[in-house]
Amino acid sequence: MAFALAIAFIVSIAAGYFMVRGRHPQLILAGAGLVMLACSLLLGGSGTADQSTGLAFFDLFRSVTESLKSKLSGIGAMIMVIAGFVSYMDYMGATAALVRIGTKPISVLKRWPYLAAVAVIPLGQLLSLCVPSAAGLGLLMIATVHPILIRIGVSKITSVSIIVLCTCFDMGPASANTARAAELLQMDNVQYFVASQLPLATMLTFALMVFVYFQSKYLDSRMSSDQPLAQQTATADDAASPLAYAILPVLPLILLMTFNAFFQTGEHPIVLDTTTAMLISLFVSMAFHGLVARNVRELESGIIACWNGMGRAFSTIITLIVAADIFASGLIALGLIDGLLVLSNAMGWGAIGILTLFIALIFFASILMGSGNASFFAFGPLIPDLARTLGIPGIKFLLPMQLASSMGRAASPIAGVVIATAGIAGVNPMHVARRNLLPMMLLSFLMVLIQQFAT
User: Fold this and answer.
1) Is the pTM of this model over 0.85?
2) Is residue 346 classed as helix, strand or coil in its secondary structure?
3) pLDDT digits (tens, 9 = 90+) for 192-204
4) Pair 440, 164: CB distance under 8 Å
């Protein structure tokens, strides 16, 4: 195992070096992942392909096929639809209409744009209860909140960073990590959320807003090349677009908040997923555009803009997500999770030391794999027995570990939410991850202190 972990460490360092030097990230991540998968097979591993072809060499490419299928049928389809919707909103002038209306109520905050920016964090966390997909929520906020933040004077990198931070707490009854933690603690999902997640997340959110306010203001003051959206995308049609168009970019959020099991009662609630809500909104927008424009060619041009947006999303975002998935598969195949577990078992620390170690392990595992679910599902089952051995409540371990897994995801350059939001906004995912790393590390440290002194 030590030799396999050494290979994983060397390959990861090399991949990071080449990406920092500006080399093509898809090529670097996919290549590094395939190298690690090949090394795993040479060392006697079974690889990561769900269905073997019967030949180890072919199984390497079978892993790529399975990654493509899973990403294209899930998050890939959602990202392409959202990217097409965003492109259509830009083309028909709906984004500009939303900005014109959205900036009026917050015009009083133009002197304090970073105050408005950090106020987005609790708003986004509230929306995450309706949109449990981090990438889905991030992209919806890129379509709605991002243009407004840019217009009031916040840099693009700060706007994307804050939108990603809205997903840093994987909480709520609809979250897979919440369901798993509640199961391990033998609690009800809603009880776990209301009694445990919500109080801790509220305290951490306030601290996050304070830190991000000063960090963003300081870092943006050192930047000089980020132009506001008004200078980047303004066209002659923007000023002429009807203000009624402003409702269209937020229509997906309205649908998702209305038709959501969390806010409905009864035997048969009507529930929409993100992709379906986006498609409905796209259809309504096209019908609205057609009625206003009364020009078939104009409508056709808008649809072409939508298809082009989907194509750009595939070539820049989805390929990167697939490459990141292959990279994470290589780390897992070489025993990253098993190695971290062995390390944790070898430490003879007390309760606070063990808690700190596990939070650090799950945090950095999420950064390496770009997934909070993968790291928490690997470490979570170990905690109840460990807590009983140490004589402390299991929730004092599981709750901070569960939140730390999604914090690490918010600081990972290969996480789906970071890649997707950065790709649509036109910024470097590495820069977003680097911006979020310090606040997430400080928040993790604060969380350990809170849990230590909690009754």
Assistant:
1) no
2) helix
3) 888 888 899 999 9
4) no
